[in-house]
Design goal:
The protein has a 5-stranded parallel sheet. The chain has a 3-stranded antiparallel sheet with strand order 8-9-10, with no helix packed on it. It is built from 12 helices and 10 strands. The protein has a single domain, classed as Rossmann fold. The chain is α/β, with parallel strands linked by helices. The chain is globular, with a radius of gyration of 21 Å. It binds 3'-phosphate-adenosine-5'-phosphate sulfate. 3'-phosphate-adenosine-5'-phosphate sulfate (PPS) binds next to helix 2, helix 6, helix 10 and strand 9. The site of 3'-phosphate-adenosine-5'-phosphate sulfate has 19 residues, from helix 2, helix 6, helix 10 and strand 9.
Length: 306
Amino acid sequence: MASAVGEGRKLAQAESRVISHPMAPRKRNRQLRPPRPVKRLPQALIIGVRKCGTRALLEMLYLHPMVQKASGEVHFFDRDENYALGLDWYRSKMPLSFKGQITIEKSPSYFVTPEVPERVRAMNSSVRLLLIVREPVTRAISDYTQLRSRATPSAPAHPAPPAGEAARPFEHLAITADGSINVAYRPIAISLYHSYLHRWLEVFPREQLLVVNGDRLIEDPVPQLRRIETFLGIEHKIGRRNFYFNETKGFYCLRNDTTDKCLRETKGRKHPRVDPAVVTKLRRFFVQHNQRFYELVGEDLGWPED
Ligand SMILES: Nc1ncnc2c1ncn2[C@@H]1O[C@H](COP(=O)(O)OS(=O)(=O)O)[C@@H](OP(=O)(O)O)[C@H]1O
């Protein structure tokens, strides 16, 4: 990206070194002192949905010079033990930022955890919320793929699936012995987006939440990012020059003025083949649920019905 992208960030890094350096002069002429970056509570949150591209979205937004990101998933609002540590602890997990920059954090389980909307409102009732979603059956298969590959240290934030579950085929987990859909199976339950979204909309006005189409973000990130820049009130800076398609990975990778970077191998995993009849059955099951989601967000995402 043009040098502007790195400028704010480089400045932030350089400035943080000056601030933390023990030999830094104590007193300087106030008028000459450059602006100081400080840690701020996030003004925007990526609240979920798990496996819909939350990491990709955060990394893509970080291409913008006015965005700073929390590096890991902080899980402040969804884990009682973290929430009990208070807002100062949460702030301490945030990156340095200059005035006017937007700090963004993502923890995908915020979306599905009942206490979170109220807790977020208590922090900042005008926080901007980004909800990235994918076609629900694809998301469920992605979730299954992650749980199956689990037991690896790559996803320590999520509980391991019950013993034996990860080894079973998706078809047997998603459909019960009597042929009905297993809504108790977490990857299916989390794809019932409306059942979690309504809680958020009881707490926040609709305009404060932007729904990002994760399937479109994969196919063509720039138009989605433009919408988000507008929503966040920042200039359109992220463009086609910031992406290149990596044929081996099968996904877009990111580029700025200093580096090219693809997401880790745990992002963009190959999914197992799922019986097409099961996919169709699941898609039909989701039709009415998707409809309820469309009604809540006032937008039809056009997900396939079989
Ligand atoms: N550019 C790019 N590169 C790689 N992967 C991409 C990209 N854009 C979106 N995705 C999709 O992100 C999916 C992982 O979603 P999350 O980051 O939300 O997962 S997690 O909940 O944090 O574990 C991941 O899901 P899987 O394909 O199942 O691995 C990807 O499909």
